[in-house]
Specification:
Length: 202
């Protein structure tokens, strides 16, 4: 396994590769920024600016923020607003330019778990331009999320590139690399100190 601490270091390890596949959340942008954006939308809807900070503080303590801070009708409506937000998020510095450079040499894809509407909204907000995006839930439900290998198989067929010439980049040791390893793909672990899974052990 290749381990990096900076997403821009991916380019050092793809000389013999024909396709780079990226995870999305906490790999290309900060998922915490998405969470904060959602809380801001909820606070704006309620007309209570202080709610954003209350939700964020609950989240940082590891709590279920919306459950803890909001009750009754506000809870379900707030959840809907969070999940359907047009997020205010940004790619990590240099990522857009890196992807442009890589695409001049090879195929670039994204395999990401999550609710389709949320993941597609993130990709749109980030302005990501890649050759193929697979949101695993769109394959038939949550059972197709990583480590299920189907998304990787579909990506390989779409690109018509051998698995051994593909590499997957992700940040979650518990699920991102199980399928690539079985399929004989190479993979890069981004140990993202700002990410939600930074405390995982290598």
């Amino acid at each position: 396994m290749i381990q990096i601490d900076n997403i821009l270091d991916v380019e050092k390890y793809i000389n013999d590769i024909d396709a780079v596949i990226f995870d999305l959340d906490d790999t290309l942008y900060s998922e915490k920024e998405y969470v904060r954006s959602g809380y801001r939308c909820i606070a704006r809807w309620l007309g209570k600016t202080e709610v954003e900070e209350q939700l964020w503080n609950s989240f940082q303590r590891g709590g279920k923020a919306i459950d803890e801070v909001l009750e009754g009708k506000d809870h379900s409506e707030a959840l809907h607003i969070y999940r359907n937000q047009q997020p205010a998020i940004h790619l990590y510095s240099g990522v857009g330019e890196m992807i442009e450079r890589i695409r001049k040499q090879m195929k670039v894809g994204i395999i990401t778990d999550g609710r389709p509407e949320g993941q597609r909204a993130k990709i749109k907000a980030l302005g990501l331009q890649v050759d193929k995006v697979i949101v695993t839930d769109e394959l038939g439900g949550v059972e197709y999320r990583k480590p299920n290998p189907l998304a990787f198989v579909k990506m390989q067929k779409a690109f018509d590139i051998p698995f051994k010439k593909m590499i997957y980049v992700g940040d979650n040791l518990s699920k991102d690399f199980i399928a690539p390893e079985k399929l004989k793909m190479k993979y890069i672990y981004l140990r993202n100190e700002e990410g939600l899974y930074y405390q995982q052990k290598v």
